[in-house]
Design brief:
Blueprint lengths: L7 H23 L3 H7 L4 H17 L12 H6 L10
């Protein structure tokens, strides 16, 4: 089954994710118990917990790349491999 609207489902999911991320930030800043805060907004506590779990899991799965600079020692290029680093026969 094709999605109508050229990826509308993915767009709605991204929007939903950002809305839930903001709601979770509001809840965490409130200092209230989850059930109390959710009830005030008519949000099922299980739904709020699920989104908290999902967003944290996604954040943990993100890979951070760090730039690396490789430095080659001139001695290695001129002298060749070191005998003390050769594998034992």
């Amino acid at each position: 089954m094709a999605l109508r609207g050229g990826g509308g489902e993915a767009r709605r999911m991204r929007r939903a994710r950002s809305i839930w991320a903001e709601l979770i930030r509001q809840y965490e800043r409130s200092g209230k118990e989850l059930e109390e805060w959710a009830a005030e907004r008519k949000i099922p506590p299980k739904t709020l917990r699920w989104w908290m779990w999902r967003l944290r899991r996604e954040q943990a799965e993100e890979v951070s790349l760090v730039p690396v600079r490789v430095v080659v020692l001139a001695r290695t290029l001129v002298e060749g491999p070191r005998a003390d680093l050769a594998p034992a026969a």
